[in-house]
Design brief:
- The chain is mainly beta.
- It is globular, with a radius of gyration of 18 Å.
- Strands 1-20-17-22-15-13-14 form a 7-stranded mixed β-sheet. Strands 2-3-4-11-6-9-12 form a 7-stranded antiparallel β-sheet, with no helix packed on it. A 4-stranded antiparallel β-sheet has the order 5-10-7-8, with no helix packed on it.
- It contains 3 helices and 22 strands.
- 5% of the residues lie in helices and 45% in strands.
């Protein structure tokens, strides 16, 4: 165990202990209480409220539904998922779509982000011939009644193989943002998606026997809350059980596919080492919030 991280508490969240529902068209695992699954010891972690690992069958999906006062993002692992704003009618896309935030067929490497704010309506459908596998993540914003907004970005796999890539970072103007700053939507870290929360999302693909290092709170002055960060690490089920990682060099912190870990009592600047110790490369998602 790294001496510099000896103060950290790492609590494993085993895949088998997550909430699980198989509806035929949807096979879903819930890290936190969601829908019919409720566990009072797993309701949220920092700003992180929902982490669902979903598989959706071909030609099915989530029909038009509303969201409000939540920051919602989808991370595509395999397959194709079509995000469609409620104003975009199927069959009339060419005439109605203004940009890819209104309608976008997301594939591996894509992240779609929604600020629910005072109310937004959209659908997420698998219009392809194969299953789609993705993470659906919700965070609690620092304010209610925000202006609804979509973002869609692609993050290159080659970059994720070199180290953790930051995907989401806080809105630079913070919770006191003026209307023009909201419209500008500048994130603290250029090239990332801005979120209305003191939260960073990162992802990496760690080769077998390789080690990545994650800096809590990001590199530099990224987050406002420096002490007592809440870092959740998730290893999606992408390699048929062949991927495994070890956190902070601890023998009792070995994650298998579908597992996660609550890392608490850490501060901005702390470094968490992640070692790939399985037979296949490991794709890891890190959610770091106040």
């Amino acid at each position: 165990m790294s001496k510099s991280l000896s103060h950290a508490r790492i609590t494993l969240r085993r895949s088998r202990d997550r909430g699980h529902s198989d509806h035929g068209w949807l096979n879903t695992y819930h890290t936190f209480s969601f829908a019919d699954y409720y566990d009072p010891s797993h309701t949220h972690f920092g700003s992180l409220r929902v982490l669902n690992e979903d598989r959706v069958a071909a030609h099915t999906g989530f029909p038009t539904h509303p969201h409000r006062d939540a920051e919602i993002f989808s991370y595509i692992l395999s397959g194709e998922l079509t995000h469609r704003d409620s104003m975009i009618q199927k069959g009339r896309e060419g005439a109605m779509v203004r940009n890819k935030d209104d309608l976008y067929r997301m594939r591996r490497g894509d992240v779609q982000f929604t600020t629910g704010g005072r109310g937004i309506t959209h659908s997420e459908q698998n219009e392809s011939e194969d299953w789609v596998h993705f993470l659906q993540i919700w965070a609690m914003p620092w304010a209610k009644g925000l202006t609804p907004r979509y973002y869609t970005r692609t993050f290159e796999e080659a970059d994720k193989r070199r180290g953790f890539v930051t995907i989401i970072s806080p809105l630079r103007a913070g919770s006191e943002a003026a209307a023009e700053e909201e419209e500008k939507a500048e994130p603290v870290i250029p090239g990332t998606i801005p979120i209305h929360a003191d939260l960073i999302m990162s992802a990496g693909i760690i080769g077998t026997d390789k080690r990545f290092k994650y800096t809590v709170g990001g590199q530099g002055d990224v987050v406002r809350s420096k002490e007592g960060r809440n870092v959740y690490v998730h290893l999606p089920m992408t390699k048929n059980g062949s991927a495994k990682v070890r956190l902070a060099g601890r023998e009792d912190s070995l994650l298998e596919e579908g597992d996660g870990a609550y890392v608490s009592k850490v501060n901005a600047g702390d470094v968490i080492s992640v070692e790939s110790v399985g037979e296949a490369e490991a794709e890891l998602v890190v959610l770091d919030s106040q």
